[in-house]
Every structure is written in structure tokens, then in C-alpha cells.
Amino acid sequence: MPHRSTPRAGRTARALAAAAAVAVAAATAACGSRAGDEATAAESCLDTSGDTVKVGALNSLSGTMAISETTVRDAIYLAVDQINADGGVLDKQIEIVAEDGASEPTVFAEKSEKLIREDCVAAVFGGWTSASRKAMLPVFEDNDSLLYYPVQYEGLEASENIFYSGATTNQQIVPALDYLAEAGVESMYLVGSDYVFPRTANAVINAYAEAHGIEILGEDYVPLGSTEFSTIVQQVDSAGADAVFNTLNGDSNVAFFREYTNVGLTAEDMPVMSVSIAEEEIGGIGIENIEGQLAAWNYYQTIESDTNAAFVEAFKGEYGDDRVTSDPMEASYNSVHLWAATVEKAGSFEVDDVQEAAGGVSFDGPEGTVVIDGDNNHLSKTARIGIIESDGLLHTIWESDGPIEPDPFLEGYDWAADLSVGE
Amino acid sequence: MRNFAQSRLGTLSGFAAGAAVLFGLAPLVLSGFRLGLFAQFICYAIVAVGIGLAWGRGGMLTLGQGVFFGMGAYLMAMHLKMADAEFRSGPGAVPDFMELAGIRELPAYWVPFASPAFTIAAVLLLPTGLAAALGLAVFKRRVKGAYFAILSQALAGAFAILLIGQQTLGGFNGLSYFRYFFGFTLNDPVNQRMLYFITAAVLLAVVALALQLRRSRYGELLVAVRDAEARVRFLGYDAANVKVVAYAVAALFASVAGALFVPVVGIISPASIGIIPSIMFLLGVAIGGRATLLGPVVGALAVAWAQTTLSEQFPSAWTYAQGLLFVLVIALLPGGIASIPKLAGRVRAKNQARTLEATA
Amino acid sequence: METIVGPLFTGLSTGSILLLAALGLSLTFGQMGVINMAHGEFIMAGTYTAYVTQQIVGDAGVSLLIALPIGFAVGGAMGLVLETLLIRHLYHRPLDTLLATFGVGLILQQVARDVFGAPAVNVTVPEFLRGGVDVLGTTVPKTRLFIMALAVVAVAAVALVLRFTSAGRRIRAVVGNRDLAEASGIASRTVDAGTFFIGSGLAGVAGVALTLIGSTSPTTGQSYLVDAFLVVVAGGLGRIKGAVVAAVALGSLQAVFETYSTASLAKVGVFVVIVVFLQLRPQGLFTLRTRSLA
Question: Closest chain A residue to C109 measured between Cα atoms?
């Protein structure tokens, strides 16, 4: 194949390439600190001299996660409005700077950096997927700022710059397993979407099962968003386990429960315990396909308490009667109040002061009183098992004896000593 | 005018202007954060240059550039994770995310990535080699047009699914939390600026390489293959080889862009490389002008910028705008923005002709 | 027995779903070389048609039967509009159609999100399709049997139309050689519009049927699109026969892979098989011998 370049063009391009090489060399020569040097955190540009203080709300308003994350944002706005109506934080009105995470981890990283460095917010509320949190983590650490993350997750993380207001594994999955074991379940089938939370959750479940003599009859993963469950449901059916533990995400749940019901499986003969289905999702699945099945969370709309009644009423008043409240919404609502309480306690918006003051700060939320654990920035929370009833809501059928202390690394559980998520 | 644009002087002054903006103007007017963002956009622009070559000049609609972008990114990310682990706890240490996932032993395929030289070689060679092999397999059998487009798209989908399943590559979360880049701390503003300069310099180098290819005999062959593959074959050339080269070079550019993307952005995950991101790479190229040298660069930068600023204010409207841009540019302005001057020229000529007629 | 019936049935069932999604695509792709990325959104439109119909009619069984023809009309009408406004002007640039229709797909998705909201909505499965039938020890859901039957009916209908009606003859003539067809007095543009109407209508029907097993949300169509394209590519241009065989083959392959490994690896495996297969038969399973030079 002839491949000779015309001499003139060749010379031009070579000259340009050489120039580019020189530019790279010049760029590399002017360099900053190397590995091992003292890290220099960027100066915060937070300005608290005015009547207002800015906070960031970073949720996906577009893309696949928008379904869930827009509800979280509604709850954040509700909490901020309430605090402002009560006179604000340290006598300052809270002003929200909203950003769209677009369901993409890189966008979350980009927007959180913008919120911190350009908008100079005091704290950021948001994030949903673990991928988005992992993407934001270095940004918050490098810029020494605060993120309040509102969703139950797989644990194994504790950063000084993140406050986790959702459940960690020992406040959701472990109690769910305790409940099933108490109910006499001796064998289980695990079904999950193929990403980090289900895999970690199933590692925990496997370790628990081994220690408690529960047999795991199968463990299947489908790609995120997959809607083809024929094979898996057949395998579940023929395995004949006492219960199914479901860590599927999003639309996959719809297809899974339809297939499950269609082959004639019911909650009576093989109950499904889900950890990612809240009030919001039940409507899309169809109540006839999921009635009687179980879920594990810390909060349900049906919890009977004055605080919750007030919360549900305020939420419906703001966003409409047809809306429901769910665990992640409640957790994000709590997180705003917890931040405000911490700031009041610290008497300052400075990150160092807030971190210092955080341990022991409590808030009487719709789920009951939650307290920040100063060691790992998680909350103590009450675990609840709910059953889906014909009204499309979850109703508590079991709850833990009081709030459970957070243990993100499962250090207090002997059976979890050698946890491995590897295949 | 046309002659000047194509002349050596024109090219050099074009480059000088580009370099002045990238190295002089941008660092002066942009804050540290915006400069980092600009570096991210430049990574997209580097991918766009490759697509411009393969699609604009070669007629191959590569719907799967995310694969090569992702490979470059993951290869680099593996090295950065290894370097972090080594810095924390000595050679052969397991990266932090694996430790958390309970993986106590370093998987064998990670080991060589402790070496920076190996990593750079892998970034340059692996995706290029894969593209060449795939290209040979596909183009030799004369799979082309829509068939090739759909296959490359399915490849991107399959690759993303495969990655999500790999716990030793971070699964769905991908790889993140990088502290050092070849021995330099990444969160130091001075080093971030340096990283920007490297990225900008790579963009210039990539454009220079693309220019070299376009002006060579090979470049002419490539266009000939695009416009009349059968005739080129009748003339005794192997059209498949011509296409493979362009496809492999596009893969190389994408891989390099991915490798730079990782330290610049700080995370790579399957979400950035699947089917949708791969199509989005094309949007900038189409808008800028697929067949031109600088069109894809300008288009990619413009789209990324628009996405960032517009989506901040109007997330829902942005999706409409994105869709409309695809439809309108492709349907009404197939040459992209780059063709506007030419179109304007034609209209002017027509008007002139009409004036002449009128006065005559 | 159980172990054979299970995967076999799943293969046929998955295949019939793929076929429903790909049948319309195969028609339009085959005749016009047009890659319609908005095809997935036409399927999505079908699912929402089923939803709206059920909201109005109430009874799940009646509304399903009404929704099938309405879905055809809705999908077909959308296709006709798309064809007239956009695709018609891009016939000589097939790759550009792909990108332009992708843009249309983005817009349609956002429209669905703004009209119906982002969360999935529920379409109730009619009473007579709930539960399963026992086939040789394996429970086979009735919904899947219904979809298989529908796929057979759809294929038969398309084949009959193509084979025995004058419209079908015109379509075949244009597929075979556009210039000659035009020369013999066939208005190929009208035929194109007709084909696009039928092809998109089939997407609407597929959407209505898929509400029985899957979710109804703005992104529903996307999950079927790539697989549908693979079916068309593997089956060969413009061959209904090819689409049928390829759909069943890919469905079975997916089911078998999935039985012995994971669903994720099955997807990757299917792709590898297709690439290797195209090495052997670059034009797909069944090649249509056209008398044009391309």
C-alpha cells in the first residue's frame, strides 16, 4: 500500500509535532508537589458575612436515576423551607444551589467541585448510587467540604467529609436476615442487579447464612436495566428455596415480579425480601404482582407517630396528595435537619467546627430519633421489616429493639470477619 | 482565502492561534476549577479528532469509541491505583477498593501495571491492536455501512456489561480516588495546571498527526475508499487495509484521551463508556463538521460546554435541545458548523449573480 | 425433562420477544437501508398506548385487545410522520439517518418523561393471562405464551401481505430493485411510506404486548433496541425468514448461556457469536440477491 506523504505536508506536520513535544516538556517542567509532600487542602471560599448561607443540592434530574433522585430533592427543599420558616440556621436563611448530576458519576464529581469552589456552599446534600458517592468522595476530601448522603448503601466506607444518613448493612440487611431466620427460613435464593451494592450485600448474606446454617441455593445477577427474567425465575422456582433475597434495582424489579407472579409463585409459598423497593416503586410494579412481599428499610410512610404524620402532611401539602414518602426521602430530610442542628451546636459553618461538633447530634425524625455517631459519621437507626399491603404502602411487621448503632465495616459481627466479595 | 487556509502558512498560523488560546488565554481567564473542566472537554475533543478521521474521512460510523476510550482510561486507572497502593503500603500491595471488597491477593493481570512504562505502552498499543484486529476481521469480510455501525455499537454495550461484572476492576462503581499521577500529587493546583497543559499539548499533537495523515497519499486513498470503495479496489488497492489504519488511529486517539481523562476527572466507570456515551462522542463531531480537521475539535468543545452550562439551568430542556441538535444538524447542515462559511459564500455568489442579472 | 423444557421454552419465548421488537425494524431496514434508532421509542409509545387505553377502558382484558390495534395505529402514525418529515430527505445517507433518528428518540423519551412522569407506570395483566400452564414439569407463564402466539400471528400477517397482496408485491419490487420498480410505474416513495407505516406499527404492537412482562417507563424501548438490531444484522437484510431464525437462535443462545453462566456473560457471549458468525456470512443468514450494484 503506497504510504508516502507529500514532502511539504510532512515537513509542516513534523514541525508541529516537534512544537507540541516541546510544549509537553515545558509543561512538565513547571510542576508542583510530589508524592509524600504535605498535602495542601484548597482554601474554602465560604462567605458567612451576609444574611444567607448557601448549600448545594446535587441530584440527578435527568438520566436513568432521575426517577428516584428527584424525590430526594423534593425532600431536601421541604426541610430547607421548614428551617428557613423557623428562622434559619444561626439566624441565616438557607439558600439552595441546585445542580443536576445527570445519573453520571463524572458529572457528580464535576458538579460537586463546582458547588464547593465556585458557589462556595457550606455543605452539599445528594447523591444516590454508590458510584456517584465514590466519584464525589475525593472531591470533598481534597476541598475539605461536607457531603450529606441520604441512601442506604453497602457500607465499608467512612470518610470525615461524608455524613451517611441512610442505613449501612447492619441496619438493613442484617436485621432482614435476622427476621427471616426467626421466621424459620432455612434456604434462600439470591437475585440481584450486577453492580456493587448487590454483590456486597450478597457477600454479607453468604457469610451470615454460613454462620447461621441457612443454605444458599443460588445466586444470580442480571445486567442493570435487564428485563429478561425467564431463566432466573425458572431456576428460582425449581430450586424451591424458603425465601428469595432481592437486591434488584429499578425497572428490573417490574419484570422480575411480573414473571414471578406469572409462573405462579406467591408471597405465601416463597416470600421475596427486597431492599431496594420503597413506596415509590410499588406503583410501577403493580400491586397485584407484589402484594404480601417484604421489604427492609428504616422508614415507612405508615409509621404511626406525630412527627411522621406532620412530615407526611407537609410533604403532601407541598407536592400533592398523590405523592408518597419513602425511606431515602426521609433520610435526606433528616440530613438537612441534622446539618442545621450540628451547625447550631458548633456555632459556626466552618467544616472543621461542624465535624468537631457532629458526634452525638440528634434529630427527632419521622422514623424516630437518629443520632450521629462521631466515629464513622453514620446514624444510629431503627431497622424495620415492612409488608406490602393492598393500599400500595409498606406496613411495619417487625422492628429492632430500639436504634441500632452503625457498624459500616461489620466489626462487631464474628461471622463477617472474613468477608469477601470476589467471585 | 481558500488557498490561504490550505497553505502551509495558513496551517501554521491556525496552530499558533490554537496554541495561544490553549496555553495563553485559557489559563489566564479560567479559574482552577474551570480549567480542570476545560481539560476534561479537551479529552472529548481528542476522541473527536479520531472520529473525524474514521467517520468524516473514512466513512466508518464508529458507534463504539467508548470501548477504546474506556480501555485507555482503565489501563491508566489501574496504574494509578497500583501506584497509590505502593505508596501507602509498599510494593505488591492490594489497591484500597479491592481490600474493601475482600480481595486479599492482587490479580495477576494487575501486576505489570505497577510499571509506568508498561502502562504507557499498553495505553498506546492495546486498544490500537484490538481495533486493528477487529477492523481486519470486519473490513476484510466487507462488513460495512450500517452493519459496521451496529456491530460497533453492540461492542460498546457488551464491553460496558463485561466491565460491570468485573469486581477486580471496581464493577459498576469503576475506579476512582486517585492521589498521585506519576509521582505528583493530584490535588495540588500547580499539578492540576500542569495536567491541563499536558492535555492541551496532546490535543495539538493529535491534530498535527491527523493533519499529516490527511495530507498524505494515504489520506487521499481514505477519502477515495469512503466515496467509491469498489473503484479503489478495482485500482488494485486493498480497501480493507486503508480502513483498518484509520480505525486503529481513531482507537489510539480515544485511548490516549481516556488515559488523560482519568487523572483529570478522577474517576472512570462503565457509565462513561457504554452505548449512549459512545453516541454522544459523535454529536460534537457532527455539529463541528465531520470531514474537516478542526470541526470535530470545535464541535466537541462546544457541545461539552453547552451541556455543562445549559444543563445547570434547564435539565429537561437540555435533553430536547440535544435531540434537536442531532436532528437539525444532520438533516439541514450535514457539513456541520464548518460548512456555514462555504454555504454563506454560495448564497452570496447566488445573490451577486442575481444582482448582476438585475443590472444587466 | 424439566432441564430441557426450561431453556428450550425460554429460548423460544425470548426469541419471540426479540422477533416482535425486530420485525418492523427488519422491514424498514431491509427496504430502505434506514437504521431507525427511534424504533425503540415507538415500542415505548406502544407501552404507553396500552397504559392509556387501560386507564380509559378499565377492564384489563378488553383494553389489551383494543390496545393492540390502537398501538399499531399509534406506532404507524408516528412512523409516517417521521418518514415524511425527516427520513424521506435522508434516503441517500443511511448512516446520517441513524444519528438523526437517535436525536428523535432522545426527544420522544423526554416527552414521555414530561407527560407521564419519570417513574414506571403499571399496566395490569388481564385475569386470563395470569398464572402459568404446566408443560412437562415446567411452569410456563401464560403471558409468554400469548406473546409467542402474537409473534407467530404478526409474522404470518406480514408474510401474507408481502406474498399475496398487490401492496406486498410493490414492496418486494422496491426491495429488489428500486430503479427498475420505478421504471415500471411503482411510486417508490409511496411504497416507502407504506412500509414505514407497517414497520413502525409493528413496533407499537410489540410495545403493547411487552407491557405484559416488562415495565412501562420512558426508557423501556432502549432495552430492546440493540438486541433487535443484532437480530436484523444476523438475519440478513430484508428477510423476514432471516429475522425469525435469527431471533429464535439468539434467544435460545442467550437462554443456554444464561443457564450455564450469568446473564451478563450471556450478553457478551451472544455478541461474540454474532461477530464470528458475520465472519462466515457477512450478509447475514439469508442473503437477498438484489440486482443493484451495492
Answer: A63
Would A163 be classed as within a structural domain? Answer: no
d(CA B359, CA A136): 68
Express each pLDDT in C57-113 by its tens digit. 988 889 999 999 999 999 999 999 999 999 888 877 878 888 899 999 999 998 998
Contact present, B208 and A16 (Cβ < 8 Å): yes
Q: Domain check: are A177 and A316 in the same one?
A: no
Nearest beta carbon to residue C264 from set A66, A221, A259 = A221
Give Cβ neighbours of residue B112 (< 8 Å, ≥ 6 apart). B118, B122
Interchain CB contact of A225 with C (< 8 Å): yes
Residue A41's pLDDT is 55
Nearest Cα residue to A385 out of A166, A176, A174, A170 = A176
Q: Do A358 and A341 have their domain in common? A: yes
Q: How far is C124 from chain A (nearest CA, A)?
A: 7
Q: What is the pLDDT along chain B (360 residues), one digit of tens a residue?
A: 445 555 677 778 888 888 899 998 999 899 888 999 999 999 999 999 999 999 999 999 999 999 999 999 999 999 999 999 988 888 778 898 887 777 888 899 999 999 999 999 999 999 999 999 999 988 888 877 778 888 898 889 889 988 988 888 988 889 999 988 888 888 888 888 999 999 999 999 999 999 999 999 999 999 999 999 989 999 999 999 999 999 999 999 999 999 999 999 999 999 899 888 998 899 889 888 888 888 999 999 998 988 888 776 776 677 888 889 889 888 888 888 778 877 777 777 777 766 655 554
Residues A276 and A312 placed together within one structural domain of the fold: no
Residue A291 included in any domain: yes
Q: Which of C35, C107, C230 sits opposite B154 (nearest CB)?
A: C230
Q: Which residues of A touch C10 (CB under 8 A)?
A: 230-231, 234
Interface confidence (ipTM) of the complex? 0.86
Asked if A135's CB is within 8 angstroms of B176's CB, the reply is yes
Quickly list H helices, chain B: 2-6, 8-19, 26-29, 32-51, 65-89, 96-100, 116-140, 145-164, 189-215, 217-227, 229-234, 239-265, 275-288, 295-313, 315-332, 340-359
- Please indicate whether, in this complex, the C-beta atoms of C223 and A227 are within 8 angstroms of each other: yes
Interface of B with C in 255-294 (CB under 8 A): 275, 279, 282, 286
Query: What residue spans define the domains of chain C?
Result: 2-280
Shortest Cα distance from B346 to chain C (angstroms)? 21
Q: What is the largest CA-CA distance in chain C?
A: 59
Name which of B9, B43, B120, B176 to mutate to probe chain A: the one with the most chain A Cβ atoms within 10 A of its Cβ: B176
CB B280 within 8 A of CB A107: no
Pick among 2.40.50, 1.10.3470, 1.20.120, 1.10.287: CATH of C2-280: 1.10.3470
- Does the CB of A135 have a partner CB in chain B at under 8 Å? yes
Question: How do A162-164 and A147-149 pair as beta strands?
Answer: parallel
Interface test with C, best of B143, B150, B307 (most C CBs within 10 A): B150
Let me know the angle formed at the C-alpha of B281 by B280 and B283, rounded to the nearest 5 degrees: 65
Contact C139 A281 (CB under 8 A): no
Best C14, C19, C122 residue to mutate vs chain A (most A CBs within 10 Å)? C122
B115/A149 Cα distance (integer angstroms): 36
For residues C257 and C261, what is the distance between their CA atoms, to the nearest angstrom? 6
Q: Which of C102, C267, C272 sits opposite B326 (nearest CB)?
A: C102
**Predicted TM-score of the model (pTM):** 0.89
| From A273-277, A396-400, B29-33, the region with the lowest mean pLDDT | B29-33
- With beta carbons under 8 A apart, name residues in chain A contacting B37: 110
Structural domain boundaries, residue A213:
170-300+384-416
